[in-house]
Request: fold
Amino acid sequence: MAFIADALSRVKPSATIAVSQKARELKAQGRDIIGLGAGEPDFDTPDNVKDAAIAAIKRGETKYTPVSGIVPLREAIVQKFKRENNLDYKPEQTIVGTGGKQILFNAFMATMNPGDEVVIPTPYWVSYPEMVSICGGTPVFAETTIENGFKLTADVLERAITPKTKWLVMNSPSNPSGAAYTRDELRAIADVLLRHPHVWTLTDDMYEHLTYGDFVFTTLAEVEPALYDRTLTMNGVSKAYAMTGWRIGYAAGPLPLIKAMDMIQGQQTSGACSIAQWAAVEALNGPQDFVTKNKAIFQSRRDLVVSMLNQARHINCPVPEGAFYVYPSCAGAIGKTAPSGRTIANDEDFVSELLQAEGVAVVHGSAFGLGPNFRISYATSETALEEACNRIQRFTASLD
Ligand SMILES: Cc1ncc(COP(=O)(O)O)c(C=O)c1O
Reply:
């Protein structure tokens, strides 16, 4: 009898962590490496948020909190959903977790029975299928294409839904593609969901505040109020307020689901860190100029990277609407020979040869379920991005 649970045999280690690890190893060997694998803003947490945390410590807010979160934070979440998404929730319909990750995990844990299916559009954030598998469910992948901007279409969704479907996961703007859904695109998805009342939707809106140009963010329950009773709207402070290490995520949804998630959390962590919760109150209620300022910085980095990648041979890089990722295709490089003499058979070979030849660390698209592509995180300085893109141009020019 194996000691480790069978469920873990279905789980893959994180490819994004593996790339960072490989880049670190090469750096330790003295190689000049530019890491474009990180999934976190390179900015520091704003001072008003740090000050709120320090004040919370000094006030003695250092004890267990209610499992689902402190009242001021749950109220701030209610106000945030009203102010920014025109969604009405009561504080008891909200829950705070240790990062957005725990919210997602608890939602799956609270709902999955063996055989239940979760529709996950590709390319997906690496953790969705693994979380579903750990919780005993079955991920069902719904493919998008570069031609439709990596967005799920109504017909693909319709084909993916079966009587066993429990959830659809929507992530807009997306990690890894940066694609964000317009109101019309969400309308088309909502119309399919209205025909399948047994399917709930988990909307991961983590990158809500990072959309560029005249793109207007919207979320599913806002577009179709009839889906409110079967939508869990998830969000967090990690990306918008550069608070990845504080580990605060949150969600709002139907009361029975929130209660079930509360029960799991009560047996698991007893709730998120008290100090980080007070910091999140300030992030949500305090001045929002930090978000606007960084959005402008991210947009100019996105434009730089997209333009330089589209000047690289064999690369096709669509312009994503949001997040801090681009997801170019390297289809043109498949079958070519790298400077090492090896043939590039797939996107994993492409990123590994790029790392060896030019010291640029990116993540292969097949790790996110759709290739041949690769993901670049532009959450780093323009200088580093420019140098990295120059190296990518040099690398692709050297392929024959
Ligand atoms: C799409 C998406 N959802 C959720 C998360 C998790 O966020 P947190 O750091 O708050 O757990 C991430 C983090 O990378 C993400 O990219």
In short: The chain has a mean pLDDT of 96. The pocket of pyridoxal-5'-phosphate is lined by residues 39, 99-101, 125, 171, 175, 204, 206, 236, 238, 244, 249 (CB under 6 Å).
